[in-house]
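Changelog-adjacent note: as of this version, every example in the card shows the full chain rather than a window. The one below runs 228 residues end to end.
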Amino acid sequence: MTLVFAHRGAHSAERENTLGAYRDARELGVDGVELDVRQTADGALVLHHDPEVNGVAIARSRASDLPAFVPHLEAALELLEGLRVNVEVKNLQDPAESSYDQTGAFVAAVIDVLRGSSNIQNLELSCFDLATCVDAHHYDEAIPVSFLTWKTPLLEALELAATEGLSGVNPHYLLVNADAQHRAHELGLGLNVWTVNDAPDLTAMAEVGVRSVITDQPALALRLLRPS
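Full-length structure tokens:
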């Protein structure tokens, strides 16, 4: 059965990556939630997709200086107790990003918080930066880690993930076909596909047999993939 993950929560009525969006996703009955974690200048782990919020770089700000709608990772994990949670670590060497941690300290701090959750068995990590994925796996081999990919060809990404001992690959849905799913199965890897929003694409991904779809339309995905 293909799992349904709400991308940044259910944000049709609430702001994405907020406790309200995560609460709405839970009430819909999704299998899991995908969220984005960043680290502030004073070491707090907060949830926001973009490197800036209201024009302020998160990595250069104290947590107390951020808007109240930006939640901390710990609060989200508590709210989502019992659900699967895909924590995307926003650490990437990219001109659009305001910081990059190459030491592994950022992802280690994230894992330390995950370890403190009573929901640890349902938690997983993902990142577009392969080095960060490897650091995470080495720091705690018990926590599933998936390599997020868009520019890397999917078959190549699968081989890289398998070589590094990761648990999965999270590709854009346009990269996915039956051959890729077959190879992932051969390598013992899960495919967690983003961001799948249209009915034909959701149905196609489920028919291919991917582990999960990450979607901005969780209510639609549930209607299609969990027919009564």
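Structural remarks: The helical segments are 19-28, 73-79, 105-115, 130-139, 154-163, 178-187, 199-208, 218-225.
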